[in-house]
Hints:
Structural class: mainly alpha
Oligomer: single chain
Shape: globular
Number of strands: 0
Bound molecules: tryptophan
Amino acid sequence: xxxxxxxxxxxxxxxxxxxxxxxxxxxxxxxxxxxxxxxxxxxxxxxxxxxxxxxxxxxxxxxxxxxxxxxxxxxxxxxxxxxxxxxxxxxxxxxxxxxxxxxxxxxxxxxxxxxxxxxxxxxxxxxxxxxxxxxxxxxxxxxxxxxxxxxxxxxxxxxxxxxxxxxxxxxxxxxxxxxxxxxxxxxxxxxxxxxxxxxxxxxxxxxxxxxxxxxxxxxxxxxxxxxxxxxxxxxxxxxxxxxxxxxxxxxxxxxxxxxxxxxxxxxxxxxxxxxxxxxxxxxxxxxxxxxxxxxxxxxxxxxxxxxxxxxxxxxxxxxxxxxxxxxxxxxxxxxxxxxxxxxxxxxxxxxxxxxxxxxxxxxxxxxxxxxxxxxxxxxxxxxxxxxxxxxxxxxxxxxxxxxxxxxxxxxxxxxxxxxxxxxxxxxxxxxxxxxxxxxxxxxxxxxxxxxxx
Length: 453
Ligand code: TRP
């Protein structure tokens, strides 16, 4: 009976949990950020460092967050202090993480509005009528329209709210189990087309050829930031998802699958994008420039196939953003619900505040009305991007891992890793605990300090 109660308010199966968490991890970061920074910081050289961070720091954090969540069945707002009642200040780590989630949600909403808009324009053929040199202006024009992008954002957000209100199992888990496989199929189709274009090999080389001179300490820092961002760790979302994990889920194994899935999708994205970019004589760019200005030119030069390619690509991006935004909204909703608010009220409140921030931030983008308003030399949009990408998650991750490795009771950890003694604690678990105690915090400190200097 008690088993049943646990699972009815959480994920129903390990597979569902993996799909939901992978849905959170796989997002805009995989598709438009990873390929670019990988190429920029020396391809294969960056990849080696990235692998290390992903498996030895990111995955360690994912495991830790899952354990904290499942042990307490609480959100980050309460989980830390529940495990350490004598030190209630630990809860600030959780609250700090939730703040980061809120900021990321605002950015996600802006970009999702643009992406849904572009999906619509490729579906209706508007994009295919624009001449190559017109895309930069088209994007600026679209992004600075006061209403259109917001309407798309609202549609996107309504869908997220709808899923959240469906519940953890019937909403989030079900939608993730449906959308993630679709995402992979779309991505594989795009990869095959891209890799078979004449001249594709130049793009593959850009992504994989190791150039250590381009790496530097900046590249190492970027690799760490990207590893944390891409796995959605260091902000407590995985604590919330951990609190929904089935009692018999093998936490280390699930973390491994989620991590592999995230990494694979990032690499496949690179293979879908860069060979096509190079084959069409374009140069790689980052973020908005790549997705809304370079890629449409690539799609148009591929004729009718390109049109389909374009529809698939923007759909892929919408789906990736959707499952991530759902997890962000869920974390914040669950937090307010834990404080006593009704889930529906909480979801609507968070959404409204996030829309507000996203509209303000989007006015600061490009030539928007707030673009000349700067804080510390950055526009609001750039500031949000910087805070959520490079600053807040590593700090929060460091505190989380110190809490896990040094302040959480060993028996609690052992109990969760062994599923209350029903599975054996092998060398792999011990190795990961060692990473959590020593390797991950030291690596995080080194990278943070060199980054600051
Ligand atoms: N992992 C997401 C991506 O790759 C971004 C992200 C960071 C995120 N933290 C998150 C998504 C927390 C959901 C929840 O794009």
